[in-house]
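task queued by scheduler; priority normal; single chain, no ligands, no partner chains; default sampling; output format set to structure tokens
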Amino acid sequence: MNRHVANMEKGFLMSQAKMEDIISLCKRRGFIYQGSDVYGGLSGTWDYGPLGVQLKRNIMNLWWRMFVDERDDIYGVDAAILMNPKVWKASGHVDTFVDPLCEDTVNHRRYRTDHILKDNGIDADGLTMEQMDELIAEKGIKSPDGNPLSKSRTFNMMFKTSVGATESEDSVAYLRPETAQGIFTNFKNVVDSFYPDLPFGIAQQGKAFRNEIAPRDFVFRSREFEQMEIEYFVNPEKWQEAFDELLKSTHEFLEALGLDPKNIHELDVPPEDRAHYSKKTIDIEYDFPIGKEELMGIAYRTDFDLMNIQRVSGKSMEYTIKGTNEKFVPHVIEPSFGVERALMAVLSSAYREDEQNGSKRVYLALPEHLAPVKFAVSPLLKNKPELVEKAREIYANLSKKNPGRVMWDDNGNIGKRYRRQDEIGTPHCVVIDFQTLEDDTVTVRERDTTEQRRVKVEEL
């Protein structure tokens, strides 16, 4: 059975409801807002609120720690977003970075042709644009507004801009559609500066931009997003060994995100669906509320990118094995992660509903190392100065040990505070009461179990 049809048949409506609940929580509690919301928004753009930016940073910092800081074979770079346009000509993006576009012939709204087919239960993977058009005609598929669709045409997704005071063909530049090329263009710089032994990698995190025809599914597919990518340079005879090691490290990272392995699937992409330069690609798919979709990918790109740079720039990309005269252009393994997709997977995995004291409770069961707030500190009664003073003292001490991860909360009664902290995923609520003044213990209430226990202040 078509895997997308299967996805739609198993709890699709319930999943959509869950997605709407997550989006609502994100806006209500300050995780993610619609971009330019006060002016009516801008499709495909999202702003991260105080909690969202902290969660995002926690994910990115975890990735950097696991793939760069804790390894001695991967080096970090931070390349410019604006690059010489020759970069994108050499990489093929100017000519081939396209999606199939079709148009509602009545209201002229535009859609990705493969998405139109997917929404009608047809998997378009591997189909040519002509085959997609034939299926639309054969099945009598209409636009979402019920109107006929035009024939498909290609649409380049790169954002074009001009550099300098005048606009001309010579001033054309592009907002980068991926971070990978900033790594490849710095390959020779890193080798000249550090001369690392093969295999070694270069990692980058940063913004990328794609002029998506129809952004959709919350932050899953947007026009401005962040990537975390590694280009791992290897001897072509040893690529499989490096591929397997990076795939294993990828699964360890996904486990550290708190994702359930049963919701993670490997798709060994068949040759006809791979990029022409790829000898092997594995897509890591995740069971999102919107269905099983790609979370990240790892590809064996051979020497395609470095050979393109060597051909267009005229500069050698060869690597010389230390102590020998053996030279070759290294091959590349590329693990590529989207920050927003990782964040959406984390939120989807953590979202929970249960019943407490006869009413529905919503909470985010975030791993403690990812939760934007680790401790919420409250005086039991905010109109008792002695409780407030002690609570402020404990808040200050916890904040020194957990910078940016401790929240002061004295708004409403204690039950409402618990529910509010549950919704933002705070693992521990610390309450200072009259017993605290007597024996220097506090009540710590745990998010997932709602259990409460007395803990000495110095043991927090």
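post-processing summary
- The chain has a mean pLDDT of 92.
- Residues 90 and 309 are 6 Å apart (CA to CA).
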